[in-house]
Write a structure and sequence with these properties.
Length: 267
């Protein structure tokens, strides 16, 4: 667990220089939620750390205290984690974390099976599956939490994406990947692509869902423009820990503007 594993909101510096303002001491917290970011040192190529920051801020808006933790290669895995997020990276980043991730397979699988909410993006989406076979034929084994497999191709899927999700409505984001992922019967798609490509060039599907795990190729970061998805992760984490979730009054004004802008953009 890296040195940044202190309660968010105390004004301390977080990874990559991000900092949250201090909590309002006059407001009583409804409880603390521990958010773990997996491998931010190597799997953060498109700013996916922003997803952790959104979750921390939305927890605060709902009246809970976020505690941001990091896990990088060689760290001790923290206990009592309530919510896990992980981002994307190049093939080289996946190779760096490969052995360490496999060593943590049983821990992460146990958390997933127990219902811990997780968001895994792009490279970690692939490695939460069975394997990622690169364009050169090298196979990077995954931890098999998700019934998916990914094959690297010469075709790069790039552009804005709009997804119709039965759970979360319209999901907006940006994809940039050459891996093409096929879903097995053990997972459901996150949604159907209305614009863009998603998992692969033929299925018309984006992402994967299993228990409380949400997997997606969408960057942006994903959560700032998709508060319904962010609040699903927050609510699930709180309900698992405290038995019920008491909603606050989040400020979605910027999210609404960002969604309007993103929806107007061409592919």
């Amino acid at each position: 667990m890296t040195p940044q594993s202190q309660p968010a909101g105390s004004g301390h510096e977080l990874s990559f220089g991000h900092e949250l303002p201090p909590l309002d001491s006059a407001e009583a917290s409804k409880g603390t939620i521990r958010i773990l970011q997996l491998y931010p040192r190597d799997m953060n190529i498109y700013g996916d750390w922003g997803n952790a920051l959104v979750l921390a801020q939305r927890l605060r808006w709902h009246g809970y205290t976020p505690e941001l933790l990091e896990y990088n290669v060689g760290d001790d895995f923290p206990s009592d984690v309530d919510l896990i997020v992980g981002g994307g990276g190049q093939d080289s980043g996946q190779l760096v974390i490969q052995d360490d991730l496999l060593a943590r397979e049983s821990t992460l699988r146990e958390l997933a099976e127990d219902g811990t909410p997780m968001l895994v993006i792009c490279g970690l989406y692939q490695l939460f599956g069975k394997f990622f076979k690169t364009r050169t034929g090298a196979v990077i084994p995954g931890i098999g939490i998700l019934d998916v497999e990914t094959h690297g191709t010469e075709e790069r899927l790039i552009g804005n994406v709009s997804v119709s999700s039965p759970e979360f409505g319209t999901i907006l984001g940006y994809e940039n990947h050459s891996g093409q992922t096929t879903l097995g019967p053990g997972v459901a798609p996150l949604g159907a692509t209305a614009k863009g490509t998603g998992n692969n060039s033929t299925s018309g599907q984006e992402g994967a869902r299993y228990r409380n795990v949400v997997a997606s190729y969408l960057h942006g970061s994903l959560l700032p423009k998709n508060p319904a998805l962010a609040d699903f992760l927050v609510r699930t984490a709180v309900e698992r820990k405290y038995g019920s979730f008491i909603s606050g009054s989040p400020d979605d004004s910027y999210a609404v503007l960002a969604r309007e802008h993103a929806a107007r953009r061409p592919r």
